[in-house]
Design brief:
It is found in: Cell membrane. With 322 residues, the protein is an all-alpha fold. It contains twelve helices and no strands. It has one domain.
Length: 322
């Protein structure tokens, strides 16, 4: 059950559950550190302050548990099922497991390298490390899903047209297939953007640049507040930035996929032979709905989970900083 929950959090809910869980975890660590070290003498003397931090801890626990439970319920109850695959078994069996089996060593190596480098650059912040590691895994997964599976399903062989007697329909199919290939190239161009984001230079520059701005802001404000407050604020900023980035690229990817789907619908598939109809069915069931569902772009439950999680995290950190 554990690995399946993890894959659902990482791959089905985009920048929501995993990142907010990491955010709350980092938040909880900062609060725990303040409780045990910085404010221990004060807390022992001020009952009101003790009550405030106790309430803060309970709220943090409740948020973390509620988001986790909500994510699991959405996945297992089937609130956001894939078309023709209510339980999500086909998706996980064919794509997630295959991805990790084929790229396990690469993923482990990247995790070690990126975690070490980014931990140093971000002063060990769980939030920034989680964001960057998520982007690496998500980019690898989307690139693999697009270029490998989608490309293989577009491999039409000349024999597939042998059952079509009307030559004019063969020409029309051939012409429309070329248009489909053009649309596929557009999708691959978008996927290349995802792949380029995997560059260590880009990731480290983005995170280190954000931390430099954070340190400058901390110094300009006189350093009156604990630096952990600014780390939390920086984590929120990075989380928002990455969510917007992935949503923009995801929407562009979705638009290209829809155009590709529309071109496929223009094909005179009624005159195709049995093999062609099976091939078309495979394409339709493994591109449009799957790619859109991967990003959750048209999923109300995903949107609700994402924004509620972010708002809860911002609210609790605002209370904490104030």
């Amino acid at each position: 059950m554990g690995p399946r929950i993890l894959t659902s959090l990482v791959f089905e809910y985009d920048c929501s559950s995993l990142l907010i869980a990491g955010l709350l975890y980092d938040d909880f660590l900062a609060m725990h550190d303040l409780l045990r070290k910085t404010f221990r003498p004060v807390l022992s003397m001020d009952p009101a302050l003790t009550k405030r931090f106790t309430r803060r801890r309970l709220i943090c626990y409740m948020q973390f548990i509620s988001i986790t439970v909500l994510s699991i319920l959405i996945h297992y109850v089937g609130v956001t099922p894939f078309v023709g695959d209510p339980e999500g078994d086909l998706f996980h069996r064919l794509f997630v497991r295959r991805f990790f089996e084929d790229n396990y060593a690469l993923v482990v190596l990247q995790f070690i390298v990126f975690y070490t480098v980014i931990s140093i650059m971000t002063f060990g912040s769980i939030v920034q490390v989680t964001m960057c590691m998520y982007s690496v895994i998500q980019i690898n997964f989307q690139y693999h899903l697009l270029v490998d599976d989608l490309n293989n399903k577009l491999m039409f062989h000349p024999d597939d047209f042998s059952l079509i007697e009307d030559y004019s329909h063969q020409q029309k199919i051939s012409k429309n297939l070329k248009r489909c290939v053009e649309e596929l190239l557009k999708i691959q161009a978008v996927a290349t953007k995802f792949f380029k984001l995997q560059s260590p230079v880009i990731l480290v520059s983005m995170v280190s640049g954000g931390m430099v701005v954070l340190v400058l802001l901390y110094l300009l404000l006189g350093g009156n507040r604990p630096f952990s407050h600014f780390k939390i604020a920086g984590g929120l900023f990075v989380a928002e930035y990455m969510v917007v980035t992935f949503c923009r690229l995801g929407q562009e990817y979705s638009n290209a996929s829809v155009e590709f789907y529309d071109k496929l619908c223009e094909l005179p598939w009624y005159y195709w032979g049995t093999n062609n109809r099976k091939m078309l069915l495979m394409i339709l069931t493994n591109t449009k709905e799957l790619t859109i569902s991967c990003f959750g772009l048209k999923d109300l439950n995903h949107t609700f989970l994402l924004y509620v999680s972010i708002l809860l995290a911002i609210a609790i950190d605002s209370i904490y900083i104030l």
